[in-house]
């Protein structure tokens, strides 16, 4: 056995999808867990021929008290910093930030002397829920590794909302929002789902309301290894792109048919669940989240996107992003990276700690990500390392600006920056109070609010979530 | 700052001369001995002939010593990677480059990694620049519970990486051992007991021992390799996680009293910490593992190391179970987190000195080598790192690294890449021409 589990398991999950199509039925679908579809586009006919949101979010905001945290250092998540500042939130929303704010009557007032307040951490790349703990074969639901193109699968149909990892990410990492992706065995891995980090009985009750879907794509070694080892296409990088292009060509044709039907009516084209997703990408409704390490491959993928008329929102694991920071900037494509992972496979061999700083220096969009149930608990520390590496290379990025790698940049790459990712009035009150400078190794979250509800408090054992799986097991309810 | 760099440059030049003549005194810095004690402000570290002469406060600078002013810096024992495959693997996912395990070899316990260590591996240079000076390098298991014999290495930029070859035998029990043994924990114990019994047979009558037949369960070389384990002259590293498995391993000493056990992983160690302490068994723990990653780690918590330490167990940490490969430089981050935990209500962490020891003298202690490496106590090998700040803090990095008293190169392949791409665009010539 390996000491480490660096090469993420690519075991096939044999999960058949039962999808209820409602192509021409004008009655909105009624889900067991949903009151009614929130998507006004669910109706058929002109505009959209099928429901685009058949498994809608049922997330609701938990009750919170109007809260004023004062005498804190604030990083607002968009590069702003207030020393000795105050933040006020109520009814789930940020109301104000400032040097001094008055507490409304009845507000909870917290003195944060010596402490820091930031927006909640956003992890754009997680497999919590679809590769949950315990990591037993029965839980291996992250890669539908049965075909290189599985754009038909949706990560949310794998996510186990009782994964103990959600609670750790909240309590140790201050993570309030995260994108769950299917794995990287496939060129088209399927749809992602964006979650609020709030335990629920159903995954739908964790879904970030109105967040766009993502399409997970992968280039490089994983798809060619998984399918090459089965003597099927792709077994090479050129095979990867060949299958990608053939699939996009199909998607363009599919889109044309549905566009015509929705414009002119007539017989509805046959539904293809995979093509629905790719059509969504071509429409700009679904964002491409592309696993890709090497600089040369990222450049090819960006040209492929132009060839077929889509846009790569972000490359993930972009270990060589620093080599093409200018090209990424020119294409308005973000890079989500680790601070210092390198060398675990050929395509990660050139990883360096200065990756994020060099992206920032070039004016490209960069952010931190975890892809790991342990790393997600310390993303603030990963940013601190990336910042320190930059500083030693002569790139001095202020703390408040470095925090963008944890909040507003991932929020933008998820299409939710208008609602979260910074402490701006009107945004969701996703807030972390840290017991010191959050870019220090000696600091931990003290309190975490999600939509203004206090969902973790280090000083209150009752505000420490225990997932169903852990209940009654060794260490249940312990400080983890 | 400038003075420091100047003196380091001077020293680098001086070291071209024979090292034995050199006495070096590093003065004025905050000194971290690595033995569990707290850092000492404005201390001095003296080294000569590749060994530490003295370290601490109020140390006189010997006459004629080369003096390095480290005022405002930290001077710390080099870090010891507690359990790793450094030098054995170029890239884990590139099987051709990966010598950590041999899944179809007929041999197991006799596997000896020492001749396979490559001191020029890219990772060695990168991790050395991150403050790692020694490493406990282990093979991984193939198709037996026995992985073979690991080594202690230095990360120096020279041709001789081995500090101690055949330093320990490594065995998998628990879930991994069950898998290697054919599918169950009982099968793993059957394999363990049979192998040790066969080793005894071999000792009693080597001539009568087969072990060369294709169907033999244990090869001659494997039986021979297990003798020092039975004698307790070679530590037996055992990977287990679950509290009940730890108890079963500790109970092995009733049957094999001489065994010198070291537990690796040990996520539920806190649940049996007094028993581990009473058995005087050392631990190399997965530092921050806090998830029920498997059914044998349901009790995993970040307080594990702190609670075991409080119970009197000597605990080192490692990157076992962490998804960082090959980033042994993250050990300092993990150790810093153990200090952070001390500030979380209800959790158990470590103080700074204890935390730094988990990545310096404690790993050495697990092997019985803390008299040789892992701290700045007099007589130890002079593995010293000058840091620009608190070594456990995320913003800090080494300014200079000494191994056996020799100043090490601070350029690494990662630095070369960084400098080549400090501007991404190609210039008058392609990037391949910029060095």
What structural class do helix, strand and pairing data of chain A support? alpha/beta
Report Rg of chain B: 23 Å
Greatest interface and its residue counts? A-B, 71 and 73 residues
Shape assignment of chain A: globular
Distance between the termini of chain A: 26 Å
How much of the residues of chain B is beta strand, in percent? 15-25%
Give the quaternary arrangement of the chains. Answer: heterodimer
Mean pLDDT of chain B: 94
Report on this model:
- The complex is a heterodimer of chains A (480) and B (435).
- Chain A has 480 residues and is α/β, with parallel strands linked by helices.
- In chain A, 22% of the residues lie in helices and 19% in strands.
- Chain A is globular and about 60 Å long.
- In chain B, helix 3 (174-181) crosses helix 4 and helix 4 (185-204) crosses helix 5.
- The model of chain B is unreliable at 1-18 (pLDDT under 50).
- At the A-B interface, helix 1, helix 6 and helix 8 of A face helix 2, helix 3, helix 9 and helix 12 of B.
In short:
The complex is a heterodimer of chains A (480) and B (435). Chain A is α/β, with parallel strands linked by helices and 480 residues long.
């Amino acid at each position: 056995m390996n000491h480490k589990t660096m090469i993420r398991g690519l075991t096939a999950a044999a999960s058949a999808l039962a999808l209820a199509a409602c192509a021409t039925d004008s009655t909105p679908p009624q889900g067991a867990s949903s009151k009614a579809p929130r998507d006004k586009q669910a109706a058929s006919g002109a505009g959209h021929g099928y429901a685009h949101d058949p498994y809608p979010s049922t997330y609701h905001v938990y009750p919170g008290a109007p809260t004023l945290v004062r005498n804190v250092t604030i990083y607002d998540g968009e590069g702003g910093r207030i020393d000795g500042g105050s933040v006020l939130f109520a009814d789930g929303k940020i109301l104000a930030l400032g040097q001094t704010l008055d507490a409304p009557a009845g507000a909870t007032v917290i003195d944060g002397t010596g402490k820091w307040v930031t927006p909640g951490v956003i992890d754009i790349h997680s497999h919590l829920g679809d590769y949950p703990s315990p990591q037993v074969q029965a839980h291996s639901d992250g890669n539908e590794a049965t075909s290189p193109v599985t754009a038909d699968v949706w990560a949310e149909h794998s996510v186990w909302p009782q994964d103990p990892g959600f609670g750790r990410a909240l309590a140790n990492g201050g993570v309030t929002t995260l994108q769950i992706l299917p794995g990287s065995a496939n060129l088209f891995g399927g749809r992602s789902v964006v979650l609020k980090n709030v335990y629920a009985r159903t995954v739908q009750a964790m879904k970030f309301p109105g967040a766009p879907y993502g399409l997970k794509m992968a280039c490089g070694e994983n798809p060619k290894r998984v399918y090459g080892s089965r003597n099927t296409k792709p077994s090479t990088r050129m095979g990867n792109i060949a299958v990608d292009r053939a699939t996009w060509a199909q998607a363009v044709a599919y889109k044309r048919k549905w566009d015509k039907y929705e414009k002119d009516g007539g017989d509805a084209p046959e539904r293809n669940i995979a093509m629905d997703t790719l059509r969504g990408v071509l429409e700009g409704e679904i964002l491409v989240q592309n696993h890709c390490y090497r600089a040369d491959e990222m450049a090819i993928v960006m040209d492929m996107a132009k060839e077929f008329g889509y846009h790569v929102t972000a490359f993930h694991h972009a270990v060589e992003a620093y080599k093409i920071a200018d090209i990424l900037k020119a294409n308005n494509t973000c890079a989500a990276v680790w601070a210092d992972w390198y060398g675990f496979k050929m395509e990660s061999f050139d990883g360096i700690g200065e990756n994020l700083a060099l992206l920032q220096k070039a004016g490209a969009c960069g952010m931190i990500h975890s892809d790991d149930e342990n790393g997600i608990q310390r993303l603030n520390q990963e940013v601190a390392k990336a910042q320190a590496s930059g500083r030693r290379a002569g790139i001095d990025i202020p703390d408040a600006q470095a925090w963008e790698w944890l909040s507003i940049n991932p929020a933008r790459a998820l299409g939710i920056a208008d609602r979260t990712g910074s402490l701006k009035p009107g945004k969701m009150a996703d807030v972390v109070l840290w017991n010191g400078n959050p870019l220090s190794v000696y600091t931990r979250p003290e309190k975490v609010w999600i939509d203004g509800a206090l969902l973790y408090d280090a000083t209150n054992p009752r505000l420490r979530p225990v997932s169903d799986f852990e209940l009654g097991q060794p260490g249940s309810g312990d400080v983890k | 700052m400038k003075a420091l760099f100047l003196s380091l440059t001077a020293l680098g030049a001086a070291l071209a001369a024979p090292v034995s003549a050199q006495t070096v005194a590093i003065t004025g810095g905050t000194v971290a001995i690595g033995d569990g004690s707290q850092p000492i402000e404005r201390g001095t570290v003296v080294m000569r002939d590749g060994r530490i002469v003295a370290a601490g406060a109020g140390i006189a600078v010997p006459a004629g010593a080369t003096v390095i002013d480290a005022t405002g810096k930290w001077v710390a024992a080099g870090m010891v990677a507690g359990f790793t495959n450094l030098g054995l693997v170029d890239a884990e996912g590139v099987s051709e480059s990966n010598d950590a395990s041999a899944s179809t070899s007929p041999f197991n316990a006799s596997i000896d990694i020492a001749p396979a260590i490559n001191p020029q591996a890219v990772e060695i240079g990168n991790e050395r620049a991150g403050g790692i000076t020694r490493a406990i390098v282990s093979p991984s298991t193939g198709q037996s519970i026995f992985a073979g014999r690991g080594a202690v290495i230095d990360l120096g930029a020279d041709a001789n990486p081995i500090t101690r070859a055949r330093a320990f035998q490594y065995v998998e029990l628990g879930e991994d051992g069950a898998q290697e043994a054919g599918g169950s924990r009982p099968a793993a114990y059957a394999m363990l007991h049979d192998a040790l019994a066969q080793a005894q047979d071999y000792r009693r009558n080597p001539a009568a021992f087969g072990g060369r037949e294709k169907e033999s369960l244990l090869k001659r070389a494997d039986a021979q390799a297990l003798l020092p384990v039975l004698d307790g002259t070679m530590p037996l590293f055992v990977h287990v996680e679950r509290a009940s498995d730890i108890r079963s391993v500790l109970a092995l000493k009733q049957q094999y009293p001489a065994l010198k056990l070291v537990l690796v992983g040990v996520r539920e160690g806190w649940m049996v910490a007094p028993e581990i302490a009473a058995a005087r068994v050392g631990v190399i723990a997965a530092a921050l593992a806090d998830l029920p990653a498997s059914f044998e780690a349901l009790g995993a918590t970040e307080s594990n190391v702190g609670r075991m330490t409080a119970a009197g167990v000597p605990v080192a940490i490692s990157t076992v179970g962490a998804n960082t490969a090959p980033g042994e430089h993250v050990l300092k981050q993990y150790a810093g987190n153990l200090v952070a935990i001390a500030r979380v209500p209800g959790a158990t962490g470590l103080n700074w000195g204890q935390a730094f020891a988990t990545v310096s003298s404690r790993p050495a202690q697990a092997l019985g080598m803390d008299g040789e490496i892992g701290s700045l106590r007099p007589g130890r090998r002079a593995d010293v790192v000058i840091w620009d700040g608190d070594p456990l803090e995320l913003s800090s990095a080494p300014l200079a690294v000494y191994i056996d008293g020799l100043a090490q190169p601070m350029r690494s392949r990662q630095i070369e890449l960084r400098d080549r791409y400090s501007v991404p665009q190609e210039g008058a010539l392609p990037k391949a021409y910029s060095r």
